[in-house]
Every structure is written in structure tokens, then in C-alpha cells.
Amino acid sequence: MSTITALGVGSGLDLSGLLDQLRDAERGKLAPLETQKAQQQAKISAYGQLQSALTKFQDSVTKLNDASLFQSLSTNVRGDAFTATAGKTAQPGSFNVEVGQLARAGTLATQRVAAADTALTGGTETTLALTFAGLDENDQPRQVEVTLAANSTLEEIRDAINADKAAGVTASIVNDGSGYRLALNSTETGAEASIAGTNFETLVAGNLAADPGTVITQAGQDAELKVNGIDITSATNQVEGAIQGVTLNLEKTTEPDQPITLRVEQDTLKVREAVGGFVKAFNEFKGTIGKLTAFNAETGQAGDLNGDGAVRSIESRLRGALSGGAGESELRMLSEVGISLQRDGTLKLDDAKLGELVTGNMAGLGEFFAGADSKGGLAGSLNTTLGQLLDGNGIVKRSISGAESRVKSIGERYERMEVSIERTIDRYRVQFGQLDSMIAQMKQTSAYLTQQFDMLAELGSPRKK
């Protein structure tokens, strides 16, 4: 009997096609698992969107939970002679500021030499002494010494000064048309930091230009200003302490007897932005929930978290925290600070009402959101609730972990079922092979019998004469 190498060869039946149909039918059992897995993966993504919206809302709540927000001050300068910033210790007030003189750094240009790349100093290491206008601890002119290598050129002297971070000056070379000068510029502004002299002429004695000229100095100076008529000097143009908690950055002088008004006042803009950001973030959170839980009656399409218990729990807890108000504070409910809850669950901000509070009762507004003393405000209560919802053991993380576990479980079931299906198909393949062989054998037997019957028929028939 011949060996069958492919299904259907012996029988003439399309057994391979039938086996493929059986495989497709068996694999159809995997479809529900694939659907379940896709649903759980979609839920994980949806929970991620929910978590992101909650985190953004928590960020806005955290800003309102900072009492310093409602105590922050801003500065208003009516002019361009200076700018000002207010720190934590600043106090509200109005100040008249006159800038009579800006601080500047001192400069010094040495006498001329003929060339910048010719050795000027002697054959041994030497020291360049830089003298400043200020006094040291012994009430002597302050000096800084810079070590120079033997046979230093003007360029090498410049480089040695610039390499010494403690020199107190920066150095450059100036060609004034008649020779080369070493130009020194104090690194700090103010009279005391001003470079006043050097021993350059002594170090390069005999190597000056034919027309050496004279040392040229421009003394540094302190800034001079008046605040409400009080004379103030500063070594820098950044003046701190002249007004408590305020830093003035001087940029140019003012006209004589024409002071510029500086106002230090409550920073209402930051508070407005924080409250507006709170309302916006909550409404975006509600919008995210609406999209994730929506249901389209016409198409029958439902959001990935439609009917989800975790979403209902989150909404319920936040609604309770918002409606609970701020306890014993002067302002107790959101409606009293210009925020109302709409029918669709979103918040609406009354800018006019909020404006009245930030200008007329900032303390009450701060107490409502951030609390007074040890008592927590609405933002503190919300922050606690949001922290519980978002932490590692919170409902959001648990929901994500649950969906991930279900995806893993479905994947394991899918793999087991695939193995089972392949075993079933293998069994069908063996049975089809046996069927194919049996039919082939039957065909051979049938052909043999037919042949024998034909021969018998010929033998039994009358002979022709």
C-alpha cells in the first residue's frame, strides 16, 4: 500500500481545507478573551487619564493651601530708573525714590610699553601689587599681589592677572596709537573696590615706551539715592535693606527733585490666578470623567469607565469635600468666595466677587482656603482627600492594579487555551490521516475486486465462433 504524504491525497477529499476550518472554529473560542483583554487594557488607559486629571487638580489645590500666597506682595514702580522686588519681610507702603548716582567700577590704565609680546620683567619671578581704594583690617590701603613669571611680556602679565580669581580686577591690553597699556577694571562696583594704583612702572623700569604717558585712573563710585528724603549709599546698583524686604535694582538716575513712586502692595494677581486655576483644573477633571463614563444611546457606544464604581466613589468624596466648606472660618462656603457649583457638576467663578475679596478681605480669603493657625481650610481638606485617592493604596492605584491583574490572568488563560486548541487540531490531523489512509485502501480494494469481476465475466461468456 502506498504511503500518504498529504491529507486528501489518498481519499481525494479536501481534508486540509476541513482541518483549517476546524482550526478557525476552535480559535473562535479565543475571541471573547481577546475582547476582555482589550477592555481591561482600555480601562488601564482610562484610569491613567483619571489619575492625571486628579493630579493636576491636586496641584491647583496645593497652591491655594499655601498661606504665604495670600500674604505675598508685589511692587509697582512708576518710572524706569529702577525696578523692585518684594520679599517675605516686606510691608505694604508707598515710597518716593530718587536716584542721584549709579555705582560703577574703578579702572586704571598703566603707562605705555612699545610692544605687547616683548619681555618686560626681570629674569626672576616677581610680584605685581594691586592697590585698592578701600582699607584693610589695619586701616591700610588694601593690596592684592599677583605672581609674575620671569621675563613676562605684557600679554603674560594680563593672563596672570586674569588667572588669579582673587585679583579683584580683570585685565586687558589697549593700544592707544602710541603704545600698549595694561588696562585694569575692578570686578566689583563701589568706591572701596576701586583699583587705585600698581607697581607696574617699577616692575618694567627701563622697558617703557619712549613716550610712556601717564597712568590714567577713573575712580569707582557708590550708588547714591534717597528714599523718602533719606540719603542712602550702596556699593552696588542692587540695593537691599533700604526698604525692608525690598530689593531695588538701579538702572539710571532720576531728574533732580523728581522722585519716582514705588508702591508695595498685596499681589492680587497671583491669588486670582490660583483661584482661577483651581476652578479650571476641577472642570477639566469633570470633563475627563464625562468623556470616560459617557454613553451614546444611538450607537450603543459606552465610555471605558461607564458604570465604574471607582469613578462614582471619587466623585462622591470630592463632592463631599467641596460642599463641606471651610469649617469655622469667616468665609465658610465656596459660594461666599465667588465659586458656585453648576447643575452639571462643574464650578463657575464670579470674577467680580473674587475681586472684591482680594482687594477688601484677603485675610478672610486666605483663611478660607489655607486655614488660620492650626485650623485647616478648604484647600487643606481637599488636599487630604486627594492624597488618599492618589496614594499607593488609594482607589485609583488599586483600580489600575486590579485591571493589570485581570489582563495578566486573561493572558494566562489565552495561552492555556491556545495549547489546548493546538492539541485538538493535532488530534484531528491524526484522525484525518487515518481516514485518508482507510479510504485510499478501500479504493484500492474496490479497484482490485472490479478487475476480478471483469475477468470472471469474460471467462463465463460464450465463445465466438
Automatic annotation (TrEMBL):
Domain Flagellar hook-associated protein 2 C-terminal residues, every copy: 220-444
Keyword Coiled coil recorded: yes
Occurrences of domain Flagellar hook-associated protein 2 N-terminal (ranges): 11-105
GO CC annotation: bacterial-type flagellum filament cap; bacterial-type flagellum hook; extracellular region
A Pfam family matched in the record: Flagellin_IN
Subcellular location(s) of the protein: Secreted; Bacterial flagellum
Main location: secreted
Keywords associated with the record: Bacterial flagellum, Cell projection, Cilium, Coiled coil, Flagellum, Secreted
Annotated InterPro entries: Flagellin_hook_IN_motif (IPR010810), FliD (IPR040026), FliD_C (IPR010809), FliD_N (IPR003481)
Any GO BP annotation: bacterial-type flagellum-dependent cell motility
Oligomer and partners: Homopentamer.
PANTHER family attached to this UniProt entry: FLAGELLAR CAP/ASSEMBLY PROTEIN FLID, FLAGELLAR HOOK-ASSOCIATED PROTEIN 2
Biological role: Required for morphogenesis and for the elongation of the flagellar filament by facilitating polymerization of the flagellin monomers at the tip of growing filament. Forms a capping structure, which prevents flagellin subunits (transported through the central channel of the flagellum) from leaking out without polymerization at the distal end.
Family: Belongs to the FliD family.
Protein name (Swiss-Prot/TrEMBL): Flagellar hook-associated protein 2
Organism name: Halomonas campaniensis
Lineage, uppermost ranks: Bacteria, Pseudomonadati, Pseudomonadota, Gammaproteobacteria, Oceanospirillales
